[in-house]
Amino acid sequence: MKTIGVDVGGTFTDLVYCDLASGVLDIHKIATTPDDPSRGVLQGVLKLCEMSGVSPSEIDYLFHGTTTATNAVLEHNGVTSGMITNDGFRDIVHIGRHQRVQHYSIRQELPWQDRPLVKRRHRKTAPGRLAPPTGAEIEPLDEEAVRRAAEELKEEGVSAVAICFLFSYLNSCHEDRAREIVVEVMPEAFVTTSSFVAPQFREFERFTTAALSAFIGPKVREYIVRLQGALQDAGFSGELRIMASNGGAATAAMVSDKPTLTLLSGLAAGVLGGAWIGQQLGRNDLITFDIGGTSADIGIVADGAFAETDARSSSIAGYPLLSPMIDIHTIGAGGGSIAHVDRGGAFRVGPRSAGAVPGPAAYGQGGVEPTVTDANLVLGRLDADDFLGGGMKLDREAARTAVAGLAKQLGLSMEEAAEGVLAVINSNMANAIRSRTVQKGIDPRGFALGAFGGAGPLHGAEVAAMLSIREVIVPPYPGITSAMGLLTTDVKYDATTTEFQISTAIDIDRLNRDLETMEADLSARFDADHIDSAAVRFERASDLRYVGQGYELRVPLPQGSINESNLKEVWDAFHKLHAAEYGHAFPESPVEIVNVKVAGIGEIDKLKALRPIEGGSLEEATLRTGDCVFRIDGQLSHFETTFYDRRKLPVGRPFPGPAIVLQSDSTTVIPPGDSAVVHETGSMIITLGGTAQ
Fold it and tell me: 153 with 248, same domain?
């Protein structure tokens, strides 16, 4: 089977082709086309097919990590959307909850108020009410009121509608009927319901998730239709799969209906790719460290598994989101991050980025502000004549001019300013990793750091040193690891049911019935995707809390029939997890099951392993020596540094730093005092302060 993975980043679009039968693998990078990312995707796919000697018609699957949904939210440029909800509840999405990001600030920014997804004038109401705990109807839906609301929204130029009624997670009948009416009135509009996108309790989060779906829905659908059409016109007849935030692939049709599935699309692929590389080396505890042109994305892989976000922390651009997502932390720190002195006189790097256009000054495309890439070039850590495998020439003088301007502002030499840029950005990234590890009771010293993305290997060793991490893993193709991650995943769908049962009065029959119903629904989805039932497995989980608590912890549920015996194991696991998370537990207190969840995983053919490499010799790999600047023991020093061609490095033979390893998709820095060795899988292992093994 022949597959292609495509990951669209802020600066570059990364592509990888793999013939799963023969193991042949080719990679390609192309500049992202921000005006229409599908154009860059198509150009990249056609070029990669040409490089690999295959026709687009021979490709069976194209796996795609897309930023269309993410960018629409981050840039707040979705469509004009509307909402229909219960009488008296039009302002739920404005009021939110009593919790605030900054509890005592009266001037803090609240995205759902400052940048509403649905403006108040487009939020309409209709009589009708359901009631807990069963979702029984206590007031029928006023269908004429729904029709009038739809007609008003149509006149107001709304192109997407979110239908959000109270307690629809218990009974979706009112939302379903309202949707039918709105579709009749507005057949061209994107129409969704809160019970479809997030069938669980917490109305503010559920309504906001539905509003997000409406806000980005038309753009995501238009992008997918445009991309599918362009691919078909180019001769592609395989299947397009879109990376979802939960770490699985989804069909184009599923993503068109549930666009919120893709809000962390490309980021999730990076964690998958990093975890897969770690497994190839037997490293199951890994911090994935993916640095691109605009951001640094951090994920935690423990015992070979990645964590999912919970209801307390699931959000995008500050908007709460009820959707299964890999726990990924993103900061504005990348190769294009701009170094500047802010209005208060503080020296900062990022989050503003030069992006793909104009890009860093070194790109020679009109950029004049100093960036992280420019600083690396000034310090000699990038080869101006061998960037992207020689596919792009860097303008050294433009980089020096940009950094010199910053140095003048700071009263420093050019080299001090450039090193300061790296020190600040590295500190920002190290602090971000601490927030996901140390602040959560995880000791990062027991993990390896998987450094990838175009800029990850440039910074990995120095960031690891700040965290006392001893080992950095650089994948064979670090710049396209996210694209490779797309080829390692399965199809994955999730289902959730709000349960609200207490351990002291549990209805086991109901619990089993709900789990079986969700598994049957997921099985039907896989049947529609033509995935053999023998290739489908289910993973169960529950959201548990002590009675009276506000938020939950996720605890796995056993497969098969639930009974009192295995439920006792679930309660015990919750107490243990609560103690680990909060430092205490209450084993004698009753436990409440809030939600039960089922993840259906449909296994498909995927990348199993890379071909073992033969390598060459250090002599063959040596390109030249050059002057590089590093800070050692608090002092800036110049070092004669060896530049190597990664393709020719020997397998199993350590080599010392300072060294710069060049390849077509990234550059790796091995600082003085560290060493590196190439593993037979092709990954490079950097050992800090010692000899690589």
Answer: no
Confidence of residue 311 (pLDDT cuts 50, 70, 90): low
What is the helix (H) or strand (E) element at residue 320, kind and residue range? strand 319-320
Of 278, 660, 681, which Cα lies nearest the Cα of 449? 278
Query: Cα–Cα distance between 145 and 126 in angstroms, integer?
Result: 5
Owning domain of residue 28: 2-73+222-262
Q: Do residues 199 and 228 share a domain?
A: no
Q: What is the mean pLDDT of the chain?
A: 92
Supply the pLDDT for residue 691.
61
Does 96 fall in a domain? yes
Quickly tell me which residue has 């404005």 as its tokens. 94
Considering the domain architecture, whether residues 135 and 248 belong to the same structural domain is answered as: no
Given 210, 239, 270, the domain boundary residue is: 210
Total domains, the chain: 3
pLDDT tens per residue across span 64-75: 998 888 888 878
Most confident region among 302-306, 308-312, 391-395, 655-659 by mean pLDDT: 655-659
Q: Calculate the dihedral angle through the C-alpha atoms of 239, 243, 246, 247, rounding to the nearest 10 degrees.
A: 90
pLDDT tops 60 at residue 671: yes
Strands 448-452 and 471-474 come out as parallel
Distance, in Å, from the CA atom of 400 to the CA atom of 307, rounded to the nearest integer, reads: 42
Tokens representing 408 are 């003048």
Q: Is the Cβ–Cβ distance between 544 and 552 less than 8 Å? A: yes
- Would you state the structure tokens that stand for residue 256, as one six-digit string? 């068109």
Taking the C-alpha atoms of residue 400 and residue 404, their distance in angstroms, rounded to an integer, is 6
Q: How far is CA 331 from the centre of its chain?
A: 12
Domain containing 506 — which CATH number? 3.30.1490
CA–CA distance, 639 with 555 (Å, rounded to integer) = 52
Tokens of 574: 């919750």
User: How far is residue 673 CA from its own chain's centroid?
Assistant: 34
What is the dihedral sign for C-alpha 353, 356, 357, 361? Answer: positive
* Lookup: tokens for 383: 């080869």
CB 247, CB 492: distance < 8 Å: yes
Q: What pLDDT shows up at residue 692?
A: 56
Residues 99, 30 share a domain: no
Phi, psi of 605 (to 5 degrees): -60, 135
Strand partners, 65: 7
| Residue 96 DSSP SS3 | coil
Same domain, 47 and 99: no
Residue 69 and residue 82 in one domain: no
Instruction: Determine the longest span between alpha carbons in the chain, in angstroms.
Output: 81
Stretch (H or E) spanning 339: strand 337-341
Please, what is the Cα angle at 324 between 446 and 124, to 5 degrees?
Answer: 145
pLDDT, tens only, 252-290: 999 999 999 998 887 888 899 999 999 999 999 999 999
Could you give the CA distance from residue 599 to residue 246 in angstroms, rounded to a whole number? 9
Burial class (CB in 10 A: 0-12, 13-18, 19+), 53: exposed
**Residue at a domain's end among 573, 602, 631:** 602
Same structural domain for residues 85 and 197?
Answer: yes
Output the six-digit token pair for 247. Answer: 């770490």
pTM: 0.86
Residue type, 270: G
What angle do helix axes 414-436 and 456-466 make, rounded to 10 degrees?
A: 70
Q: 94 and 68 in one domain?
A: no
Are 294 and 10 contacting, i.e. CB atoms less than 8 angstroms apart?
yes
pLDDT at res. 456 = 94
Rounded-to-integer distance, Cα 194 and Cα 372, Å: 42
Is residue 52 domain-resident? yes
